[in-house]
Design brief:
The structure holds two protein chains of two kinds. By secondary structure, chain A is of the alpha+beta class. Chain A is built from eleven helices and ten strands. Classes of the chains: A alpha+beta, B alpha+beta.
């Protein structure tokens, strides 16, 4: 269980209700069989979940109420992404909801009004660069040009991307968009090519997209890592060799205990970053960067070990571990490379320390 | 206003402790202790307990009727937090006296035992624990030290090991075997033993880090009055569970908070001196990585404390998870410090005054975390079996 705790702005009961609601729906609709069918192209789980998410208000979870959202901020988003990760749910949640955060924080009133209600209602989804600091459009006159590799669905309504010293929202109606086949089939990546496209809006330069994506990917990893561990331990209790369940072998039990320990640390790492972000602490970026780096690497370790603990079937297409392993590998490289995120956090820590602040404050 | 007078106002209580610590903790205590011999260490420990006693902080968590102040867990957390912040000495020699003895006597002792023995602790009695034996470590219930009834006494023969500060102890909480034919958990009896009794011999054990905190006890025809039995004969295993559960996480919490200040001070000095490791990509990233885990660990300890007063606490494996993560993290941090210190870090030095000033000493000492109090391997069994429901074979 993650321990995303409430702050003054959001009460615990609302967050608990959100988690319970999301977890219940996803357990029923995005179970192992449905996800396997989806990655084999036999259903449209992503679309069905998206319309469910829209009708239940999940897509507005981080959007302020006056723009049609639930106003649950990064706490609500962390819970939603954790539960989506737990069921390896397909859909453009990370790009769309992260873009919404940027618009809500940095968009002019007209921009917020134009886009946020449409996102909250599920009418549109968004695309963002898989690695925002390594991607940029070039500006010439009133147009932007370039190629972007993005997280997002091929029918995304707009892309949010850096262009020179500003950020732009560009509608994708006329742009060249190509879907990129990925190992992680629960995610959609697209290449967008645009030539002198006219941005629908300009936003001030900010780190919000990186922070929002870092928290989203970290939350997804926490839920997914716990889920693949639970599934693996359940398998170990039924798989018998040498006349007994393999879960009884101490060599394997100790590995499972180490996975449980890692998961507890991952949850707190995420919770700390979410809490610092929600309360607008100056060290929030340090902890969001570290959370993404630490948690995604731990997820890769866990998913890898879960394949191995399954033995032969862990290496098959038909069992679940491969789905999580591929999701883990993609999560690990999204947003920014983890070494760069640690350097980013190190720079933030050095600046805070030189200014005489502690980045390690923690209430009792 | 004294510290205890402020107990109903937590911020004032905290401030009073902070003021007292600023006044009473000698700035050079670490340097002194780094060079101290055994006698100086003991004298210093006794001095520190006496100072705490003067302001009501020797046994603040005990009920008022036994001389304590009846403070809540919340207060203990504040005390621990302030001790860590001030880098105050720890009352290491009194851990069994202050935590494990009352944790055992309150639920299982007779009124006479509580009156007699708890009063002594407040006056500075040192207690040790006689649980482990050379052949009973992780398999504690296999212990073989014999206790045989002889009139109104029991006669003890056997050997105990890893008893911290037993060389200086006045009394011992002791596990013995009274029924060798019963199933191993059912033939154990729990006693209080006077360490000055004839037949008690203690030899210090020198550790890999050069210090001698543990003792080995040789017990030869030691006579213990029957009235010094805690609980019933052959019911000692159940009583021992109370002893083992008596530490609810405050010590680990204080340790984690001390480590936070150590790491922060170390980092600030590295920044000021523009230390070479800050420019080494791999080392700098490794540092950031354990900084994140350190913060997560501090949050986990807060959860252990919050959970410790709930009905779920006794079944929770969270303390085992925390022990696994915190002790391995401590080793990682000390390993890092050892590597960046180079050959100079290999110069023999114990207990330096700077944080991580003797990285090899800290690195070697970190094994006490992964081995003592139930090895990490035993903790993994607990997490897997009780937490994850994996079968026991």
């Amino acid at each position: 269980m993650t321990t995303i705790e409430a702050t003054a702005s959001v009460d615990q009961a609302t967050l608990d209700a959100l988690r319970e609601g999301v977890a219940g729906v996803l357990a029923e609709q995005s179970g192992s069989t449905a996800v396997h069918a989806f990655i084999d192209g036999k259903n449209t789980l992503d679309r069905e979940l998206w319309s469910q998410a829209a009708s239940l208000g999940w897509l507005g979870c981080g959007i302020p109420e006056q723009y049609g959202g639930l106003g649950l901020g990064c706490h609500g988003l962390a819970i939603l992404h954790t539960e989506l990760g737990r069921q390896a749910a397909p859909g453009p949640y990370i790009p769309t909801l992260s873009a919404a955060q940027v618009i809500a924080e940095h968009g002019a009133e007209a921009v917020r009004t134009a886009w946020l209600p449409r996102i909250a209602s599920g009418e549109i989804s968004a695309a963002v660069p898989t690695n925002p600091d390594a991607a940029a459009l070039t500006r010439s006159g009133s147009g932007v040009s370039g190629t972007l590799r993005c997280l997002g669905a091929p029918d995304a309504a707009f892309v949010l991307a850096p262009a020179g010293d500003t950020w732009v929202i560009v509608e994708l109606a006329g742009a060249e968009v190509n879907a990129v086949p990925m190992w992680d089939r629960t995610r959609q990546v697209i290449d967008i090519r645009m030539q002198n496209a006219k941005p629908a809006a300009f936003l001030e330069n900010s780190e919000t997209l990186i922070q929002a994506m870092a928290l989203a990917v970290a939350a997804d990893s926490c839920g997914a890592a716990r889920s693949v561990t639970d599934r693996t331990i359940a398998y170990m209790k039924t798989r018998e060799q040498f006349g007994q369940p393999i879960a009884g072998f101490q060599a394997l039990k100790h590995r499972a205990a180490d996975l449980a320990t890692k998961l507890a640390v991952m949850d707190e790492t995420l919770a700390h970053a979410v809490h610092r972000t929600a309360t607008n602490e100056p060290d929030a970026d340090i902890w969001a960067s570290l959370a993404k780096a630490e948690v995604t690497e731990a997820f890769v370790f866990i998913a890898t070990d879960c394949v191995q603990l399954h033995g032969g079937v862990g290496f098959t297409w038909d069992y679940d571990p491969q789905i999580f392993l591929k999701r883990a590998r993609l999560n690990e490289v999204l947003v920014m490379p983890n070494p760069a995120l640690r350097d980013r956090a190190a720079a933030g820590l050095a600046a805070a320390t030189r200014a005489g602040h502690s980045a390690l404050e923690l209430g009792l | 206003m004294t510290i205890l007078d402020a107990q109903n106002d937590l911020p004032a209580f905290r401030q009073a402790i902070r003021d007292w610590l600023a006044e009473v903790v000698p700035p050079d205590w670490k340097a002194r202790m780094a060079r101290a011999d055994n006698d100086e260490f003991i004298a210093f420990q006794r001095w520190w307990m006496a100072e705490r006693s003067k302001v009501g902080l020797a046994i603040p968590h005990w009920p008022v009727e036994y001389g304590g102040a009846g403070l809540t867990l919340r207060h203990l957390i504040v005390i621990a937090d302030e001790m860590a912040r001030a880098d105050a000495p720890q009352a290491r020699m009194f851990t069994i006296s202050l935590i494990h003895l009352p944790g055992t006597l309150f639920p299982h002792g007779t009124e006479a035992q509580k009156r007699r023995y708890l009063a002594g602790v407040a006056k500075g009695d040192v207690w040790c624990q006689g649980f482990s034996e050379p052949n009973s470590g992780s398999d504690l219930a296999s212990l073989r030290t014999r206790a045989v009834r002889d009139g109104d006494h029991y006669v003890i023969n056997g050997q105990k090991i890893w008893s911290s500060y037993s060389m200086y102890a006045d009394r011992c909480i002791l596990l013995t075997r009274t029924d060798p034919d019963a199933q191993k958990h059912r033939g154990i009896t729990y006693f209080i033993m006077d360490m000055r009794s004839p037949g008690v011999e203690v030899r210090p054990i020198r550790q890999a880090n050069g210090r001698s905190e543990f003792g080995e006890m040789f017990l030869t025809n030691v006579r213990i009055p029957a009235e010094d039995m805690i609980g019933r004969e052959n019911n000692g295993w159940r009583v021992a569970q109370a002893t083992l559960a008596s530490e609810r996480g405050v010590i680990a919490f204080e340790g984690a908070e001390r480590q936070r200040y150590e790491v922060e001070t170390f980092y600030r000095k590295a920044l000021e001196s523009d230390a070479a490791w800050l420019h080494d990509d791999q080392l700098r990233r490794e540092f950031m990585s354990f900084l994140a885990e350190m913060q997560a660990g501090r949050r986990l300890l807060r959860r252990v404390l919050a959970e410790s007063e709930t009905p779920e606490a006794s079944a929770s494996v969270l303390p085992s998870i925390v022990k696994l993560s915190a002790t391995v993290l401590r080793q990682r941090i000390c390993s890092f410090m050892t590597r960046i210190a180079g050959v100079e870090g290999q110069e023999f030095a114990m207990l330096a005054e700077e944080p991580f000033g003797s990285p090899m000493f800290d690195f070697l000492s970190a094994f006490s975390g992964t081995i003592a109090g139930g090895t990490n391997e035993i903790q993994r069994n607990i997490v897997a079996e009780r937490g994850l429901g994996m079968p026991r074979i």
